[in-house]
Amino acid sequence: MAAVWSGCSTSFSQELPPHPRGRRGGDGARIHPWSGGAGIDATTRHAEAARTVVVFARGRVRVCRAAAPCVLEPDVAGKEEVGVAVWGMDDEPPVADGHRRHGLRRRPVRPAAVEEGPVAAARSAASASASAAGSKSEVGGSRLHFLEERDEEMLSRRLIKLSQSNKVRSATELFDSMRASGLQPSAHACNSLLACFVRRGSFADAMKVFEFMKGKGMATGHSYTLILKAVATTEGYFAALKMFDEIEESDKKNVDVIVYNTVISVCGRAKDWRQVERLWRRLGENSLSGTLMTYDLLVSTFVQCGQSELAIDAYQEMFKSGIDPSEDILKAIIASCTKEGKWEFALTTFRRMLSAGMKPSIIVFNSIINSLGKAGEDELAFRMYHLLTSSGLKPDQYTWSALLSALYRSGRCWDVLDLFQGIKTKHSALLNNHLYNIALMSCERLGQWEHGLQLLWMMERGGLQISAVSYNHVIGACEVARMPKVALKVYRRMTHRGCSPDTFTHLSVIRACIWGSLWNEVDDILEEVAPDSSVYNTVIHGLCLRGKIRLARKVYTKMRSIGLKPDGKTRSFMLQNFATDY
Asked: What residue spans do the PPR repeats cover (predicted)?
């Protein structure tokens, strides 16, 4: 139990003689504050008792003679209460609630005349620490208390409880009072107080506690973890990295893998994968083995930064260390492999996930199906699709898009149209522009302009916003089928609906018109489009191939007059037919 002396303007100026029971009056009579005394009336005795209290500190007895009445208060932090013990002149035991029999309730009205001994020294040290911190303290200038309890272990347990309860002021006052009394809190208690300051965002107070621990040689790996998090939050990850280098150089024995994980996490959030890789290598150089958290941080950071090779290296090192990967690590590896086109490694990781009893999500299935489709492995893609449905999952738009793309890349355009028809019949709500465009691409490759027009009409009827890409596929199908007039109608429909044609639109419709001998329409399109070298070169190539040399020379002259440069093929055509007058 701590004997608390606070809020009192005092002057520790008089030491009592060894007799503990009272003092002598001028006539030799012994005066007791709580009992009658010879030669002094009751009023005088009560006034004397109100001004005199004995405080025990460092084995000496001092008398506080207050120039004004004072109040003895418990530790205050929120609604907490701490037991207070106050002793009278005659060594009476304290009352249970911590107040004297004649407890005074008024606060001091005069400042202290003199502060001596450890109180003044500790208060000066606390003020200097707060000034040096350079930032606002959570508790300001804490009060100091004389502690009757001298057991460091018991006081440390009390400090731990206060810190865990986030009672910052009381914890700080107890910590400072222990220091002022020559008592040293345990490392666990200091870490609890440090964690409390970090949670509250009081960086200055956290640094004060950390410097105390560092000076006393009490800092542990947990201390370093806490302060590095605080530094990263307050001053940035680079300052935390610099502090880590200093800590590692001065106290390498207490830098464990958890401290490394903290710094790796800080650098990972900053997307600095080079520093993460450096820390990973240093971890092995210092003969420290990574944990599951270490490899989780490494893989996730490397995947987010697009470093798939490093992610796979960390994943394989984890297996060599005998650590079973978590589901998050396996998902990240699959995502990285499918993005880089390493579908074989992705399949191996997927099988490991299944053998571990994990249930892949729809995102994992879609990622692998898409990777297989890009690699032209359409059969494996559909096996994954059947596994998806047998797992109780329902395919979504990304699933169908990946399957349609797999068929298209394998050259199975008719199968694309058949699958699209099945989706339209059974899952019409999932149809979107991307699925329509894959089907239109197949129509273009097959020259199925009628089917393409039907799909375009379905898109308009379904209220979908048709892009220039969709119109381009239909015009391209008309070009392949040598249907220039239909292509021209689609082009007019496109402009009528307010969809701006792009360069690919103009090239496709011009080629269709040239092969359909629609020369006037070609001139009209050239008048409509903005000057573009690729468009003029395409017109000249088509005219020369169709034998319209004079018309080609006319377009060539116009092209040079507006400042466009012909390509090599155009110049070659012009040189070959320079003397021809058609």
From this structure: 186-220, 256-290, 291-325, 326-360, 361-395, 432-466, 467-501, 532-566
CB neighbours of residue 298 within 10 Å = 29
Q: 288 and 255 in contact (C-beta within 8 Å)?
A: no
Place of tokens 């005349």: 113
Question: pTM, whole model, 2 decimals?
Answer: 0.66
As for how many domains the chain has, the answer is: 1
Q: pLDDT tens digit string along 71-84?
A: 333 333 343 433 33
Report how far apart, in Å, the C-alpha atoms of 502 and of each of 466, 468, 470, 492 are. Answer: 14, 7, 12, 13
β-bridge pairing 30-31 and 23-24 = antiparallel
Below-50 pLDDT ranges, the chain: 1-136, 581-582
Contacts for 112 with CB less than 8 Å, ≥ 6 apart: 8, 9, 10, 11
Residue 564 forms part of a structural domain = yes
Q: Is the residue at 11 inside a domain?
A: no
Three-state SS for 216?
Answer: helix
Tokens 């399957």, located at residue: 403
449-477 exposure pattern, b = at least 16 Cβ within 10 A, e = fewer: bebbbebbeebeeeeeebebbbbbbbbbb
- Name the DSSP class of 57: E
Q: How many Cβ atoms sit within 10 Å of the Cβ of residue 248? A: 17
What is the C-alpha separation between 75 and 504, in angstroms, rounded?
A: 80
How many CB atoms sit inside 10 A of residue 37's CB?
Answer: 18
Q: Which domain holds residue 548?
A: 539-581
Q: Round to whole Å and give the CA distance between 31 and 16.
A: 13
Q: What is the pLDDT of residue 315?
A: 94
Cβ neighbours around 31 below 10 Å, total: 20
**For residue 530, which amino acid is it?**
A
Number of CB atoms found within 10 A of residue 68's CB: 12
Rounded (5°) CA angle 147-151-154: 100
Burial (0-12, 13-18, 19+ Cβ within 10 Å), 366: buried
Q: Which residue from 260, 323, 315 is spatially nearest to 287, judged by alpha carbons?
A: 260
Contacts of 373 (CB under 8 A, 6+ apart): 381, 402, 403, 405, 406, 407, 409
553 domain-assigned: yes
CA distance 97 to 219: 38
pLDDT at 148: 81
In a domain, 146, yes or no: no
